[in-house]
Amino acid sequence: MSFNSQPHASPPATGLPSQVVSFQSSRAGYLAPRIACNTCNMHELCMPVGMSFEEVEKLNELISVRKRVKRGAALYRSGEEFSALYAIRTGFFKTVVNAEDGHEQVTGFQMAAEVLGLDGINTNRHTCHAIALEDSDVCVVPFGKLEELAHDLPVFQRQIHRMMSREIVREHSVMLLLGSMRADARLAAFLIDMVQRLHSRGYSSHELVLRMTREEIGSFLGLKLETVSRMFSKFVEEGIIEVKQRHVVIVEPEALNAIVHHHP
Amino acid sequence: MSFNSQPHASPPATGLPSQVVSFQSSRAGYLAPRIACNTCNMHELCMPVGMSFEEVEKLNELISVRKRVKRGAALYRSGEEFSALYAIRTGFFKTVVNAEDGHEQVTGFQMAAEVLGLDGINTNRHTCHAIALEDSDVCVVPFGKLEELAHDLPVFQRQIHRMMSREIVREHSVMLLLGSMRADARLAAFLIDMVQRLHSRGYSSHELVLRMTREEIGSFLGLKLETVSRMFSKFVEEGIIEVKQRHVVIVEPEALNAIVHHHP
DNA sequence: CGACCGTTTGATAGTGCTCAATTCAAGTGG
DNA sequence: CCACTTGAATTGAGCACTATCAAACGGTCG
């Protein structure tokens, strides 16, 4: 099960160390006024297939604006007007929906090379918050211009359709998790998903640093934070993982898989 | 909360009686070989805004193929190649995802004027089953041709984007339900959603006939069928609804609303 | 160092699941 | 036409799982 199937089997992004996520990633010069899309380390997102030089130029123009979002700050909030999609360059986000009664729930966690904002297309207003869980920066992609570019590049248009379809399929997986798995299976699936997504970005395949609290994990998984904590402790007791605060080492990946697929 | 926000506030489809769903709807002549899109009773889906005569002609060509699906049969199945979207003309469907371990879960119920197949765009293969819960017929919309038409009609392109975004937002609502509501609130929300969607199609606003079993409702809501049945009984005892098999009358809509929004 | 936030752990209660028995509705065939 | 079959729905009893409430612990940062 994957909560965020990557676009194709994207190679690890350049410049990222093939090891565990570091708390403070150096980003000196990262926000220099002019970084072309073709030198961006997530360009597989924007340029799915062969694109001519002229086309790349258009793309450069399209997403020349970037934005920093401080940890804890919102990239956008529910109710705000929708104007652009956001491609995450570096950092980590959560998306949160809120019910009328004030109750909130995390609907997903997003990392580099993933896209935020698709929820706003429908009504031209965002329907969830996008909150940075660490200092992040994103490419701002004005949606009107994106549609123009897509119009000129059918293959790019298809890529946008695929991106939205992928999000729909991802949410199917989450629904399956929320509707049919028990607490231990939910957390196991969550850990597998996170480490896989990080691995595809060049990080370790068995080690990760969580960017969110137990409460946020619980909100996403439909559990209370105490239950999340208990499941972590259970996995540690069973020797399946090692946990030091938010640093998690997966010792027995197969055991995690078995828990996900084991039915009561 | 809505699990399937309609495209704008669409007027009731023509030809549908403004009363409870009938078990056997007459559809004599419905599948006559040539029914133009502009006489189709769900054309608000296809033609969001002013469209010229020529444009309507293109559209007619696009979706001239229709398909009947018998109750219990699959419109498509997970793993099958994706080639088209399907606009439901009449009938009722469920979509079902299946985990590797064989476990299945209903991810949604679809009725007339709603679209099936968006899950297949991503990988060119469907990732869920679409099963008819009653004899249905659908317009087959070849996706390649749809993209061509969208290319010629930017406003139509936008409509497709909105449709996909709407599905993403709908699934957020389901995640909220599955992640944070108790059994009674889930069923109450489900009933409200169903009756609202039917009402927007010209049916009663307080009475409905369910097309799915208790087990299918439970699968969608993340509950066991016995729990669904018990919640029905509870609502009946409390005088909120009346139930005769799959025929449901909502006596106290406000009470249902209160149950959805009431937090423990 | 102390305050605070996040996390862990324990005890208890509630909610929904499991297993099982009936009831009900709608066919089906003698 | 009625006994029989079948699938769906209801209802009950006991239990498993997760939430709740509460307390203690630990790391971080002013």
Tell me about this structure.
The structure is a homodimer of 264-residue chains. By secondary structure, chain A is of the alpha+beta class. The first copy, chain A, has 2 domains: 141 residues, Sandwich (Jelly Rolls), CATH 2.60.120; 80 residues, Arc Repressor Mutant, subunit A (Orthogonal Bundle), CATH 1.10.10.10. In chain A, 37% of the residues lie in helices and 22% in strands. Chain A has 8 helices and 9 strands. In chain A, the strands form 2 sheets. In chain A, strands 1, 2, 3, 4, 5 and 6 form a 6-stranded antiparallel β-sheet that branches. A 3-stranded antiparallel β-sheet of chain A has the order 7-9-8. In chain A, helix 5 crosses helix 8 and helix 6 crosses helix 7. Chain A is globular. Chains A and B meet through helix 3, helix 4 and helix 6 of A and helix 3, helix 4 and helix 6 of B. The structure holds a DNA duplex (30 and 30 nucleotides).
